[in-house]
Amino acid sequence: MINFGIDLGTTNSAIATFSSGDIQVFTNPLNQKPVLPSVIAFKGERTIVGDKAREYLGKEGVDVFTAFKRKMGSDETYALSQKEGSLSPIDLSSLILKELKGFIHTGQQPEEVVITIPASFDTMQSAATVAAGKEAGFTHVELLQEPIAASLAYLNQLGEQQEEHKPWLVYDLGGGTFDAAIVEISQGEMKVRDHIGDNFLGGTDFDQLIMEKILIPALEEAGHFPDLAKNIRDAKGPYRRLYPLLMYKAEEAKIQLSQSNVAEIELDLTDQEGKLVEVFKLFYRKELVKLLKKPLKRTLSLIHNMLKVQKIEAQDLDQVLLVGGSTYIPYLREELGKQLGIHVNTEANPTLAVVQGAAWYAGSLKSSLPPKKRPKTDSPLPTLEVKVAYAATTQDMEEFFTAKFTGPWKGMQYRLTRTDGGYDSGLKPLQEQIQEELPLVKNAFNEFDLKVFDPLQNQIPLQIDPIQITQGSYGITGQPLPDDICLEIDDVENQRTILDTVFEKNAVLPLKKTLIKQVSRNIIKESEEGLLIRVLEGPGYALPSANQSIGHIFISGKDLKRDLIKGSDIEITLEMSPSRELSVNVYLMMSDQEFENVFTPKKRAVHIPSLMQELSILHEHIREEIYEAEANMQYEAAQKLVDLEFEVIAVKDQLKGLNTDDITDEKFQIEAQKRQIAQQVDKLVKDKFIIKIKNRYFRTKRGMEFVMMSYQPAQSDVEAYEEILAQEKEYLASNSPLIIQGAIDRINHLHSQIMWRSPQYLKEIFYDLAEERYGKYKHPQQAEALIQSGKQAIAQEQYNHLRSCINRLWELLPPQVKTQINFNKGTGIE
Ligand code: ADP
Ligand code: MG
User: Fold this and answer.
1) Ligand 2 centre and the CA of 352: distance in Å?
2) How far apart are CA 574 and CA 503, in angstroms?
3) Mutate to test the pocket of ligand 1, among 35, 351, 665 (most ligand atoms within 8 A of CB)
């Protein structure tokens, strides 16, 4: 089993292990604390991690970095002021992971590990987490979503063993992220039914509010700090060292208020005139409550949205399980109980539940490493290889066990025993494959021993890991995908691009799918051009600009064996691992060419001026839609669009207030808000396109009927067409642009098939190619010969030969002419 689990948190990280049916959280050997602050300091040549690093916040001559988890998957880096170079969020995270390795006092050195991520982490953030694990020296990293981890911890060690559970809500509010998930059990396995979250909402935001609304006004009153509020977040500004210090003070006061009604804040600072300013301030719980109202409301509205989508009422939930350090806040606990009207469960340890769950999960995951080779002995006994299969966690009282042997097993015997002595299979003749039902002790960790003996009762050495089964604990069925994964494809008719959903939100990982698409323009072999297909994450109904690009698939014209002709089929196979690594293979049917691993993941980059421009474009787009909706007397839609316009304006104003060197995550938040608004706009105007595409469908049908009349289709083509028509009602009722487009594609495919079989059509194309208007062929003499040969084929009614003449003439056309004939914008597939 993997056995080691890590909570790589924004604020705090921890490491735990599963051993003999129990969880052990390792403590920091320096101070015995079970968590490590996710803080790193660089002082001279020294790298300091954790509590000590935290103490350097705001000190001169030291670079201290915090909350880098919020920037995972982005291209942001952290510059060092004391020496050359900079570090990525991945580098910093890997330093935390390495430090955590040092907590393990048992002498073990795990090569594989489970690392938790928020359920809302996107593909780029997940990939970055795996990368950090690899950088810290783990050969294999398995990701686990935090709400599942917390639920596993609660059910497996704290919860009573119930047969039936209603679904429950996990409310995880940590330092940097908010996550809520509906978790349920079916058939003894736990799964996340849905989740929602905000990657930029947590305790740090509360600290920031306290700093802005309480501390900065107090300082401004007591001393001379010009423009403090505006410049404190500027990485190059005069107050850059004040920011972490004030944040630290704010946090201290906030934590104090979870226990008492009032906190004392003391600040001793030098102002701009060099005067020492001393501030002493009492900060009351009711002031904090005022600041928390808005963020709390946001978490509740996210939860209500999720419940609505799932069509369940809060009352249908068993309870809300609290996780994350920020759920210590008493006001938050009370309000959640009041607003949701369900039991608020505070039994899980808010700061340790996630790491405990990670270790539970790690204890149920088979290691992907080959069993350690034992040192060679001089023993004359033969060795057997064995592979075993069983579930490491189960609700059943017996577990089916099977083992398969390779090697000289004939004539040998085996014996299976439970290490507590409660079960003994007795000596049995060995087979190539053996099977046993292993009886288990209820709610306990069961360990079994498998021994093999030769006819002389000598024990044969086996290379096998211990057989360990935990009864009464829950496994998980697999983790859900947080959002749709889509491909961007051409909508040739509307001269735009749209999304095709490949994997749907909440589908259980791992996932695999093969799509067949048509190339929407010619791609000439050896040309600079290529097929460039973006992969995006976000709702499939939205337009590409509303979603987040996570990378692209690229096939270069340089690698093509033959020209890729418009309309030819391309097979795209996408595969996503449990840790959400995406791999893509492409097969081009026309040239029988296969391309492996053609996906290049991307990092998130948010550039303030471009973001401003994108917001302006979105704003413009909303206005156009408002005019159109009003012109069509769709007043309700128009009103909703007006609301969205207000939101865009507010977001634009927020962005205007940011410095280009802003050190907070606000620009990422704004970028996420922009996408959300754009998605809502797309949802509102979706109908418009459905009407359009339905019209297109009818046009395609009319075209097809003309072809059927004029070009003598084969009987099989007629039948294929009838089959499509038989499903017409369903296509149209689906109201899905892509399903209707699918029908259009099938008709078009049939259309061209009939045409290419028809002598009449072949003659039309041939004469078209033979005409002067395509300019000069690359090899005029060859072309001339083909034209003569084609004419002869027509005279002799040799249509296969004519078809081949057409294909070869096409190949002889200069590339610029070929591309002229086509739609040459967009992604290249439709
Ligand atoms: P993360 O999951 O982000 O790593 P945690 O779950 O450890 O973080 O939560 C850290 C956050 O919890 C910090 O913002 C911290 O200020 C806050 N926190 C910790 N203890 C308390 C407390 N007693 N009262 C209020 N907030 C707290
Ligand atoms: Mg956490």
Assistant:
1) 8
2) 9
3) 351
Q: Could you tell which of 6, 10, 11, 206 is best to mutate to test the pocket of ligand 1, judged by most ligand atoms within 8 Å of the CB?
A: 11
Cα of 247 vs centre of ligand 2, distance in Å, is 19
The pLDDT of residue 824 is above 50: no
Average pLDDT of the segment spanning 339-366: 90
249 lines ligand 1 (CB under 6 A): no
| Angstrom distance (rounded) from CA 185 to CA 183 | 7
Q: Which ligand is nearest to the CA of 66?
A: 1
Look-up: residue for tokens 């982490």?
Answer: 121
The reply to whether ligand 1 has any atom less than 6 angstroms from the CB of 93 is: no
Residues 486, 501: contact at Cβ < 8 Å?
yes
Q: In this predicted model, what pLDDT tens digit does every residue of 216-244 receive, in sequence order?
A: 999 999 888 888 888 887 767 778 778 88
Task: Name the more confident of 151 and 113.
Answer: 113
pLDDT in tens, 563-617: 888 888 889 999 998 888 899 999 988 788 999 988 988 877 778 888 888 899 8
Cβ of 54 closer than 6 Å to ligand 1, yes or no, is no
CA distance 193 to 178: 17
Which residues, including other chains, have CB under 8 Å from residue 138's CB and lie 6 or more apart?
A: 97, 110, 111, 112, 113
Task: Determine the distance from the C-alpha atom of residue 750 to the mean position of all C-alpha atoms in its chain, rounded to a whole number.
Answer: 38
Q: Name the more confident of 57 and 235.
A: 57
Does residue 374 surpass a pLDDT of 70?
no
Q: Please name the residues in contact with 65: beta carbons below 8 A apart, sequence gap of 6 or more.
A: 39, 40, 41, 78, 87, 92
- Which of ligand 1's atoms lies nearest the C-alpha of 9? 4
Radius of gyration of the chain (CA): 32
Q: Own/partner pairs for 69-72, CB < 8 Å, 24+ apart?
A: 69/8, 69/9, 69/10, 69/38, 69/93, 69/176, 69/177, 70/10, 70/176, 70/177, 70/199, 70/200, 70/665, 70/668, 71/665, 71/668, 72/121, 72/124, 72/125, 72/128, 72/129, 72/132
- CA pair distance 337, 343, nearest whole angstrom: 6
What mean pLDDT, rounded, does the chain reach? Answer: 86
pLDDT computed for residue 822 by the predictor? 44
Residues 363-368 have a mean pLDDT of: 77
Residue 326, ligand 1, Cβ within 6 A:
yes
The first and second tokens of residue 213, run together, are: 């609304």
CA–centroid distance, 19 to ligand 2, in Å, is 23
- Does the Cβ of 10 fall within 6 Å of ligand 1? yes
Which string of DSSP letters, residue by residue, matches 638-688? HHHHHHHHHHHHHHHHHHHTS-TTB-SSHHHHHHHHHHHHHHHHHHHHHHH
Ligand 1 neighbourhood includes 663 CB (under 6 angstroms)? no
Residue 591 is given by DSSP the state: T
What pLDDT sits at residue 160?
54
Residue 200 beta carbon below 6 angstroms from any ligand 1 atom = no
Look at 827 and 430; give whichever has higher pLDDT: 430
Higher pLDDT: 521 or 135? It is 135
> Ligand 1: which residue has its CA nearest to atom 22?
255
| pLDDT on residue 30 | 92
Contact criterion met (CB below 8 Å) for 50 and 35: no
The candidate with the shortest Cα–Cα distance to 19, out of 136, 142, 104, 115, is: 104
Q: Show the CA angle centred on residue 666, arms to residues 663 and 670, nearest 5°.
A: 150
Decide which of 775 and 360 is more confident. Answer: 360
Could you tell me if the CB of 255 is within 6 A of ligand 1? Answer: yes
Amino acid at 74: S
Q: Check pocket membership of 197 for ligand 1, CB cut-off 6 A.
A: no
**Cα of 305 from ligand 1 centre, angstroms:** 25
Sheet strand arrangement including 343-345: 343-345, 319-323, 168-173, 178-186, 189-198, 475-476
Task: Indicate if ligand 1 lies below 6 Å from the C-beta of 174.
Answer: yes
Is the separation of the CB atoms in 814 and 520 below 8 Å?
A: no
pTM, full prediction: 0.74
